[in-house]
Automatic annotation (TrEMBL):
Residues 4-240 form the GP-PDE domain. CDD domains: GDPD_TtGDE_like (cd08563). One of its GO terms (biological process) is lipid metabolic process. It comes from the Bacteria. It comes from Cerasibacillus terrae. This is Glycerophosphodiester phosphodiesterase. InterPro entries: GP_PDE_dom (IPR030395), PLC-like_Pdiesterase_TIM-brl (IPR017946). Coiled coil: none annotated. Gene3D superfamilies: Phosphatidylinositol (PI) phosphodiesterase. GO terms for molecular function: phosphoric diester hydrolase activity. It holds the Pfam family GDPD.
Length: 247
């Protein structure tokens, strides 16, 4: 049985400012299998890595990401809100992260955030950057916007897409098939072990978000869940190694 993969949620966001290179490099350092990020579009249509549609929570400024040019957004401090030590961290672009990935083997889960805000040709822009990087086989695109995932599959069916959902769905693997999606990314509290098992038997990897409780990590890894997405990848990796040695 394939061991559970560990994805760092917004990078190692429990120990470094989320969606910054400090968090990404820490995720790589501790041995994460993958990194999960979020993307939005700037005023000049550049793809940047940030969770919220505004810069308010994670920078020293305010306003919609869409109101800033890339040059303007690069002037913001995306680390001080987390700690003094991380002052000066910048909001990365998707291209910068894809360039960095050329030097490692990490899988990237890109969450499209065009749910409450719409961006022109968003999916096409994302796909173009992925194709230019040559990393299609190391990318998973997920979203709560399932129309967006349908468009992703139509643009490039070789890139894996996965449905994000926060409530229980009836046979989510069958629903995902209709979109052309090949993975399931359910919210942890709403996901039981039986559903995980049946989904994976049907050929759909299940990657649970966001798992920070160590007992839950142990349970999911022990039962062979495809992947867990955690703010603390180092904890999950330690548990995974302990279970591997024991077995």
């Amino acid at each position: 049985m394939k061991m559970t993969e560990i994805f760092a949620h917004r990078g190692s966001s429990g120990t470094f400012p989320e969606n910054t290179f400090a968090a990404f490099k820490e995720a790589e350092k501790v041995g994460s299998d993958g990194i999960e990020i979020d993307v939005h579009l700037t005023r000049d249509d550049e793809i940047v890595i940030i969770h919220d549609k505004t810069v308010d929570r994670t920078t020293n400024s305010t306003g919609l990401v869409r109101e800033y040019t890339l040059a303007e957004i690069k002037k913001l401090d995306a680390g001080s809100w987390f700690s003094v030590e991380n002052k000066g961290e910048k909001i990365p672009t998707l291209k910068e992260l894809l360039d960095w990935m050329q030097g490692n083997s990490i899988t990237l889960n890109i969450e499209l955030k065009n749910v409450t805000i719409q961006y022109p040709d968003f999916e096409k822009r994302i796909i173009n950057e992925i194709e230019e990087s040559g990393l299609e086989d190391r990318i998973i695109i997920s979203s709560f916007n399932h129309y967006a995932l349908k468009r992703v599959n139509e643009l490039n069916p070789k890139i894996e897409s996965a449905i994000l959902y926060a409530q229980q769905l009836f046979e989510p693997w069958n629903y995902a098939k209709k979109l052309g999606a090949r993975g399931l990314h359910p919210h942890d509290p709403k996901t039981d072990l039986e559903t995980i098992n049946i989904a994976q038997q049907n050929g759909f990897p299940v990657r649970i978000y966001t798992v920070n409780n160590e007992e839950r990590m142990k349970e999911l890894i022990d039962r062979g869940c495809s992947a867990i997405i955690s703010d603390y990848p180092e904890k999950a990796l330690r548990i995974k190694e302990t279970l591997r040695v024991k077995n």
